[in-house]
């Protein structure tokens, strides 16, 4: 055993010693190591090796040995999730420690094993009904892997766990890395000629995560839609309406081949509610949704449509009635919580609207104009105070002396001080610039892909006599449109 | 000669069919022919004019129309006006009019001897009308056989005039239109077009009025002819624009009317009318500078204004920012306007516009105004009657609230200090905000589209499962089993 250990450690330490070595050399070393461990046919004392290997330095060896260990364990206990790996036991601790400390470069050579470990952890946590324990670990693991913009099946599992454990905030770091790519062989095909070794620092996530690498299980359309729907649900739970709306609009604008997925319908229902909660009205749906899909949505979400109608007309009794009538619908759709927030949203939008007409008015006037269930001006005061404190409304409440102690609500003309707003503006600009950079990079990549791998594009342009289609420019984002449509047509022809 | 069935003026039952008139400007027809639906407006206040002298200004068919309108709308003058209308109708040859007038009179004054139908006259007149129609058509046929252009033209003209007299306006306008081919001189064409315009005005076919005015304008004729026709053309055009609700254009047309109009167009309107229509339209559509420059300092229009000094006073009050005085004058003459055949329908809109404009103009110099002073200016009647005229429920404040909500006034009401505060715009913040918003939109849109491309490229579009039979397509049922295990609500 010691001999093997020596071999394993020496290989890794050798690599570390020549850390400035060329990528190709590193690459072969790593592949040799993988082959060495995989072909070692004698029984390994895995526990001994694990004890003596350092996960952060000998990541690859550790990972492979750990897998062998788990394998043998599963064989022995004949259970998919052995007791040892359940939270609180030694193996759980080891796996968790590994996932928080592995070396992201080495792990690229054993994507399948890595994923297996994470999935096992997630299963173990769920089986024991302690999903929260896994959430933190998987979050660290996903962030460490550093694969920005690529969706893996683990992302979906992870969001599901956060929803189960209601630890929404933990999902945010993962969700804030915008997802653009999907690991499927067809996407990677064209990239083969840019062959960089896996270990290179310049190799991006979209290259090393592919079907072949095993970092992700095979994705279906359900997976990406579930990912975005789960993400949206997390934002909804955090009351980040605008972000939720964006994620939901991704769900509802997913391209469809023939049928509409039920996940999309579900997304549309939530999208309607989120739009009411965020804007007080139904915003226009993304333009990429095709008409027939929209029609399907509308026929399947009738109760929601009448809800919207009542809300937009400012017809409080009707809104109330609609909500009561549809109670069973909201319950079966699991949207009861969102629907119940409509009352609050309705009232706050009314008060905010008052702010556009009045610069000051008494609480009694507010009560009279909102016509909401806040029949008593004391309630109104509480409600308005809540709005002011939550920052939704920039206003103050004043108690007047003299005339019957009425309370006066005074709206501010400007939201905040000049300096503050400038600072806020600056931070927002910086943030937007970051996101814009991400998007532009990906949009460029996207259009260059459309240009590169597309003999079919040329055939198409010949067939359909588009003189300039072969020159769809790669750099102007404005031309993204053209590129997209052409691509859709290709798919349409293919099926 | 074919009598079109859709013609509301032909035949003995105009009252019933007039109510169903559709198309361009059927409103005047309704108020003329239809006491079935009842008049739209009831005016209880006595108007300022004297009926006798008022109606004496007009000639032709408009006399009856005006009398009938006054009779049905004004409670104060109804009997007098309707009696005059009956007399007027009996003097003419239009049977249906007579019947209408008598019916209306019977409603307000059942006991009056004139309120019963003179059946002898009706029968006699019907017969004579029939005979006359036949005669004229026969003559026309004869002319046509002889192929004498001038005779055919005159035959058509006579026929048109006859139809006009008996109230068959559609046939009249058809007959006049047929004159077109037989006109030899520009003068003929001009007179034909005027006849068509007059009929169209009475029919309320304002589109037709406009097209024919333009035809008339493009006509190549002698200078003095043109000069003679010009004022009538402007007046007719203005009238049609007034009725289509284009008050600015109407104001411009009326303002461009030459004072030489005099009483030459009395079969449609008088110079007094031009002053009133033009003045009101201008008040409703122009700002103070324009009013001053184009109305008060307009030498030719001054001649009109002198006929109706109250309009002149109202406009100059408006220009001098004495809105209250201006509105009071208009209010005092409201009854007159409501009894005008052309103005009735527009009085409300025009008044609201003038009032809104006054409020807007009044606010221009202020950054904050007390509601009290505004109430004094715009709702003087309220102060006496109500304990707190600036209460949030007073009609004036309600009006202000509506104006603010529909975006007419850029201000907010402060109910504590009872002031109206005008909004201050911070351009810098606004621009920044709009930039951020559009940036946001772009990012979202781009993200959705890039994702979409990649999804399609990765072959991840929604499709029915291959394992399932094809007939499952489109229902989305196959995706049901996979659907969300739990929603957040139940976890």
UniProtKB/TrEMBL annotation, chain A:
InterPro entries linked: COP9_N, CSN3
Lineage top rank: taxon: Eukaryota
GO CC, any one term: COP9 signalosome
GO biological process: ubiquitin-dependent protein catabolic process
Keywords: Cytoplasm
Residue ranges constituting the COP9 signalosome complex subunit 3 N-terminal helical repeats domain according to the UniProt record: 39-183, 217-291
Designated name of the protein: COP9 signalosome complex subunit 3 N-terminal helical repeats domain-containing protein
Organism: Aspergillus kawachii (White koji mold)
UniProtKB/TrEMBL annotation, chain B:
GO CC annotations on file: COP9 signalosome; cytoplasm
Official protein name in the record: COP9 signalosome complex subunit 1
Taxonomic superkingdom: Eukaryota
Compositional bias annotation for Basic and acidic residues: 464-476
Annotated compartments: Cytoplasm; Nucleus
Ranges for domain PCI: 246-427
Family per similarity comment: Belongs to the CSN1 family.
Record-linked SUPFAM superfamilies: Winged helix' DNA-binding domain
Organism: Aspergillus kawachii
Assembly notes: Component of the COP9 signalosome (CSN) complex.
Keywords: Cytoplasm, Nucleus, Signalosome
UniProt key word Nucleus: yes
Residue ranges of the region described as Disordered: 464-491
Broad class of where this protein is predominantly found: cytoplasm
């Amino acid at each position: 055993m010691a001999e093997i250990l020596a071999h394993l450690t020496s290989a890794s330490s050798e690599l570390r010693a020549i850390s400035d070595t060329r990528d190709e050399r590193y690459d072969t070393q790593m592949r040799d190591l993988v082959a060495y461990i995989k072909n070692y046919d004698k029984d390994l004392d895995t526990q001994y090796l694990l004890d003596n290997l350092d996960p952060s330095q000998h990541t690859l060896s550790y990972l492979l040995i750990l897998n062998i260990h788990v394998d043998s364990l599963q064989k022995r206990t004949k259970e998919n999730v052995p007791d040892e790996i359940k939270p609180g036991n030694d193996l759980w601790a080891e796996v968790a420690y590994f996932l928080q400390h592995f070396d992201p470069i080495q792990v690229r050579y054993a994507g399948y094993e890595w994923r297996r470990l994470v999935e096992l952890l997630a299963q173990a946590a769920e089986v024991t009904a302690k999903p929260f324990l896994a959430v933190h670990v998987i979050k660290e693991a996903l962030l460490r892997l550093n694969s920005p913009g690529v969706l893996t099946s683990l992302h979906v599992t992870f969001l599901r766990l956060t929803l189960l454990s209601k630890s929404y905030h933990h999902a945010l770091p993962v969700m804030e890395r915008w997802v653009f790519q999907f690991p499927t062989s067809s996407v990677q095909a064209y990239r083969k000629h840019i062959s960089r070794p896996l270990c290179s620092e310049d190799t991006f996530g979209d290259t090393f995560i592919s079907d072949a690498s095993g970092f992700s299980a095979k994705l279906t359309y359900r997976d990406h839609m579930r990912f975005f729907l789960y993400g949206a649900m997390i934002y909804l739970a955090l009351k980040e309406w605008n972000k939720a709306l964006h994620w939901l609009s991704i769900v509802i604008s997913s391209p469809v081949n023939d049928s509409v997925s039920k996940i999309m319908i579900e997304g549309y229902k939530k999208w309607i509610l989120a739009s009411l909660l965020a804007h007080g009205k139904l915003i226009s749906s993304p333009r990429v949704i095709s008409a027939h899909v929209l029609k399907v949505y509308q026929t399947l979400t009738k109760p929601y449509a009448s809800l919207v109608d009542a809300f937009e007309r400012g017809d409080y009794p009707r809104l109330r009635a609609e909500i009561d009538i549809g109670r069973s619908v909201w319950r079966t759709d699991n949207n009861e919580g969102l629907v119940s927030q409509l009352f609050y949203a309705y009232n706050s939008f009314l008060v905010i609207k008052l702010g556009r007409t009045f610069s000051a008015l008494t609480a009694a006037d507010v009560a009279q104009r909102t016509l909401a269930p806040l029949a008593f001006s004391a309630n109104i005061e509480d409600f308005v105070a809540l709005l002011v404190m939550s920052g939704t409304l920039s206003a103050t409440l004043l108690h007047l002396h003299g005339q019957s102690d009425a309370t006066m609500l005074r709206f501010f003309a400007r939201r905040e001080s000049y300096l503050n707003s400038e600072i806020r503006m600056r931070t927002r600009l910086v943030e937007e610039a970051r996101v814009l950079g991400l998007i532009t990079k990906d949009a460029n990549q996207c259009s260059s892909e459309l240009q590169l791998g597309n003999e079919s594009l040329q055939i198409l342009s010949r067939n359909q006599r588009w003189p300039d289609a072969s020159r769809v420019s790669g750099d102007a984002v404005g031309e993204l449109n053209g590129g997209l449509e052409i691509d859709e047509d290709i798919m349409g022809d293919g099926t | 000669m074919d009598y079109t069935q859709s013609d509301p003026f032909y035949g003995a039952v105009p009252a019933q069919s007039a109510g169903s008139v559709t198309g361009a400007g059927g409103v005047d027809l309704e108020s003329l022919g239809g006491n079935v639906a009842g008049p739209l407006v009831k005016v209880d206040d006595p108007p300022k004019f004297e009926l006798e002298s008022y109606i004496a200004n007009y000639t032709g068919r408009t006399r009856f129309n005006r009398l009938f309108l006054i009779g049905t709308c004004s409670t104060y003058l109804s009997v007098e006006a309707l009696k005059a209308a009956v007399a007027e109708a009996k003097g003419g040859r239009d049977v249906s009019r007579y019947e209408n007038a008598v019916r209306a009179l019977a409603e307000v004054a059942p006991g009056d001897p004139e309120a019963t139908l003179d059946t002898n006259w009706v029968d006699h007149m019907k017969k004579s009308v029939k005979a006359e129609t036949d005669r004229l058509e026969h003559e026309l046929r004869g002319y046509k056989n002889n192929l004498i252009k001038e005779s055919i033209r005159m035959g058509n003209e006579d026929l048109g005039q006859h139809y006009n007299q008996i109230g068959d306006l559609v046939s009249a306008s058809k007959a006049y239109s047929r004159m077109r081919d037989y006109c030899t001189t520009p003068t003929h064409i001009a007179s034909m077009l005027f006849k068509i315009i007059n009929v169209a005005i009475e029919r309320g076919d304002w589109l037709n009025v406009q097209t024919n005015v333009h035809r008339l304008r493009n006509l190549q004729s002698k200078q003095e002819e043109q000069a003679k026709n010009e004022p009538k053309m402007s007046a007719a055009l203005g009238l049609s624009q007034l009725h289509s609700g284009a008050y600015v254009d109407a104001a411009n047309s009326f303002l461009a009317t030459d004072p030489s109009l005099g009483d030459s167009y009395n079969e449609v309107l008088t110079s007094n009318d031009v002053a009133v229509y033009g003045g009101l339209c201008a008040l409703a559509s122009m700002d103070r500078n324009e009013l001053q420059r184009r109305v008060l300092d307009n030498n030719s229009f001054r001649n009109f204004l002198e006929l109706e000094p109250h309009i002149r006073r109202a406009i100059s009050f408006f220009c001098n920012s004495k809105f209250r005085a201006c509105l009071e004058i208009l209010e005092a003459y409201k009854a007159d306007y409501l009894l005008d055949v052309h103005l009735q329908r527009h009085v409300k809109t025009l008044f609201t516009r003038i009032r809104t404009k006054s409020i807007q103009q009044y606010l221009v110099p202020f950054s904050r105004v007390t509601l009290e002073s505004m109430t004094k200016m715009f709702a003087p009647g309220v102060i006496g009657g109500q304990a707190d005229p600036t209460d949030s429920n007073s009609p004036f404040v309600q009006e202000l609230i509506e104006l603010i909500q529909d975006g007419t006034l850029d201000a907010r009401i402060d109910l504590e200090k009872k002031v109206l505060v005008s909004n201050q715009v911070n351009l810098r913040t606004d621009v920044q905000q709009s930039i951020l918003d559009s940036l946001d939109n772009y990012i979202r849109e781009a993200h959705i589209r890039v994702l979409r491309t990649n999804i399609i490229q990765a072959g991840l579009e929604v499709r029915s499962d291959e394992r399932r039979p094809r007939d499952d397509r489109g229902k989305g049922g196959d995706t049901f089993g996979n659907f969300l295990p739990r929603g957040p609500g139940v976890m």
